[in-house]
Amino acid sequence: MKAVTRIAIFASGNGSNAQRIAEHFRDRNLLEISAIYSNNPKAFVLKRAEKLGIPSVLFDRHSFLETTDVLSDLLSRKTDWIVLAGFLWLIPGYLLDAFPNRIINIHPALLPKFGGKGMYGARVHEAVIASGEKESGITIHYVNANYDEGQVIFQANCPVSKDETASSLAEKVHQLEFEYYPKVISDLLLKR
Ligand code: GRF
């Protein structure tokens, strides 16, 4: 058995979680990032990858859905797990099959509420506030063929205050993500 577990991070946008995860594991020996994958050539996460010295892999919808190029690349980098961090496309069946129960995601609300297609970014926080919820938080879950429906691994909460805005709530939720996502990944992967 190889000693190091290798994680691929998939991200479509800013990549602040991707950076936190990469930094968290940089000085640890048992987990490392194989590459950061993105579908978005303009994603800031690609700049972060460059700065972190982590390879990045860009793909388009055709190669992701109609070919197995991404899978070949993942395997060539000896990837064991896929971590989604703000990745906006559904994961196709061939990747779910190749990484059974080894793909996880973080969602910026307490699933099963406020998830599903189109529920990402500020829309999630706006919906939470509009429905009068007293708390929100994060959900880390396994990925399956539907948006935000896989088995929940971990949740953490934060209060929604009376004068909360989508951006103030996003900030609270991001702090929870930064605090817990690397730790949950570490606990989960090292015990498997
Ligand atoms: C996070 O809020 C995460 O929960 C969601 O997408 C966002 C990504 O943010 N899945 P960032 O790109 O890591 O800054």
Structure description:
This protein is of the alpha/beta class and about 190 residues long. The chain has 2 domains: about 1-100, Rossmann fold, CATH 3.40.50.170; about 105-190, Rossmann fold. The chain contains 7 helices and 7 strands; from the N terminus they run E-H-E-H-E-H-H-E-H-E-H-E-E-H. It has helices at about 15-25, 45-50, 60-65, 70-75, 95-100, 120-130, 165-190; strands at about 5-10, 30-40, 55-60, 80-85, 105, 135-140, 150-160. The chain has a 7-stranded mixed β-sheet with strand order 3-2-1-4-5-6-7, covered by helices on one side. Strand 1 (about 5-10), helix 1 (about 15-25) and strand 2 form a beta-alpha-beta unit. Helix 1 packs parallel to helix 2. The longest helix is centred in the last third of the chain and has 26 residues, at about 165-190. It is globular. 5-O-phosphono-beta-D-ribofuranosylamine (GRF) binds near residues 15, 17, 85 and 86.
* Percent range for β-strand residues: 15-25%
In CATH, the topology of the largest domain is named Rossmann fold
End-to-end CA span: 12 Å
Work out the number of β strands. 7
Mean pLDDT: 96
CATH architecture of the largest domain: 3-Layer(aba) Sandwich
| Name given to the CATH homologous superfamily of the largest domain | Formyl transferase, N-terminal domain
- Small molecules in complex: 5-O-phosphono-beta-D-ribofuranosylamine
What overall form do the CA principal axes indicate?
globular
Note the total helix count.
Answer: 7
Q: What about the largest sheet?
A: 7 strands, mixed
Q: Note poorly predicted spans.
A: none
- What top-tier CATH class of the largest domain fits best? Alpha Beta
Strand order of the largest sheet: 3-2-1-4-5-6-7
Helix share of residues?
25-40%
SSE sequence, one letter per element? EHEHEHHEHEHEEH
- Structural Rg: 16 Å
Q: How many domains make up the coordinates?
A: 2
